[in-house]
Design a protein that fits this description.
mainly alpha; elongated
């Protein structure tokens, strides 16, 4: 379908520029829509494969994780541990428990029970329990909590914090960087704020009248009309001008739609708004979960070959990290060695920074 400017007298150069601007915006919108569709499916596939890799790696070190977790719990009741050291130790137990849970939830729960018994031995007899200890136990409960438990949507307020977006969220035609969630403002909601010009409302009404299912007697054709009607309603809600124009052209049986100069200027404004919507949708896809964000930064590429290369690199990194668990329990012979490990966890070496960031995104 072709959307063109109605022939007009006067400055044809200006008219030509307006048509080119409209065509360019149309092309950008179509490219952005395609990019988002690809990103959605490809990123979900990366998450699935990442989870498989994590299960395989953690299954291979399950005995080491159980041994290490139990050894760490043994140290919890030592009186010579400072509050800071005990908290770091509890965090370490939580990290081990999260990894153990991917391969054996029963073993993870047994570790959870041992942890609570040790914490009761430390704090249970005290009348004045430090608030930090309560918060620490709550944190471990969250780490080991039942993944199947109902999530309380009311427990989280979107306005309480802002989430940083990817630094390079708008590569390949998307301009800008650094996205923040804006007070519950999402792409789907923002589009409803668009006040479409009168000619668009008129176009919508004409298309809706032509596509109305009640105009069709045949059941199969009626179902097709109902589907297109739903597309039309969704397009108007989202401010998707191109889809509305295409459905209108289909409804009136024309391969070309001509609009006036003022209407085309309005259309350009709507297309620019649509581009901003698609940019927000792009970031929402990327920031859906911490795992999505991590994989977008470290693995994702529009190129399948590059994604596969990055996945192999990630697999090697995960395996190298898993190998570091081997033999750790045996090395923890006494409190002196334990405290050295705890200090290293608190202050990793400069060369470990990238790996540390990677593991934090993985929940390790």
């Amino acid at each position: 379908m072709e959307i063109t400017l109605k022939p007009a007298r006067g400055n044809k150069t200006a008219t030509s520029k307006l048509q080119k601007r409209f065509d360019r915006l149309c092309s950008q919108v179509e490219s952005a829509e395609k990019r988002n569709r690809n990103l959605d499916s490809q990123l979900d596939e990366l998450v699935r494969r990442h989870d498989e890799l994590m299960r395989e790696v953690d299954q291979g070190i399950k005995p080491e994780l159980e041994k290490l977790g139990n050894r760490l719990v043994d140290f919890l009741t030592r009186k010579t541990l400072s509050r800071r050291q005990r908290q770091e130790l509890a965090d370490w137990i939580g990290d081990v428990g999260m990894r153990l849970e991917t391969s054996d939830r029963d073993a993870a729960w047994a570790l959870h029970e041992r942890f609570h018994a040790a914490m009761d031995a430390v704090y249970g007899g005290l009348e004045d329990v430090d608030e930090a200890s309560d918060a620490l136990e709550d944190g471990i409960d969250d780490l080991f909590g039942d993944n199947d438990a109902d999530y309380d949507d009311d427990a989280y307020d979107e306005d309480d914090e802002e989430w940083p977006g990817p630094e390079d969220a708008f590569d390949e035609g998307f301009a800008g960087a650094g996205w923040q969630q804006r007070d519950g403002f999402s792409a789907s909601e923002s589009s409803s704020k668009l006040t479409d010009p009168g000619w668009v409302r008129s176009l919508f009404r004409k298309a809706a009248q032509a596509l109305h299912p009640d105009r069709e007697i045949d059941d199969q054709k009626r179902a097709g009309r109902e589907q297109r009607m739903q597309q039309l309603l969704a397009a108007r809600k989202q401010g998707d001008l191109l889809t509305m124009l295409k459905l209108y052209a289909e409804a009136v049986g024309s391969d070309e739609v001509q609009i006036g100069e003022k209407d085309m200027e309005d259309a350009c404004d709507m297309l620019r708004f649509r581009l901003s919507e698609l940019k927000m949708t792009h970031d929402e896809l990327v920031c859906r979960t911490p795992t999505h964000l991590f994989l977008y930064r470290e693995v994702y590429s529009p190129s399948k070959k590059k994604r596969e290369q990055n996945l192999r690199r990630l697999q090697r990194t995960l395996q190298e990290d898993a190998d570091q668990f081997r033999g750790v329990a045996e090395k923890l012979r006494n409190l002196k060695v334990l405290k050295e490990y705890l200090e290293k966890r608190r202050h990793p070496l400069p060369g470990d920074a990238d790996l540390d960031d990677l593991l934090r995104f993985l929940g390790v």
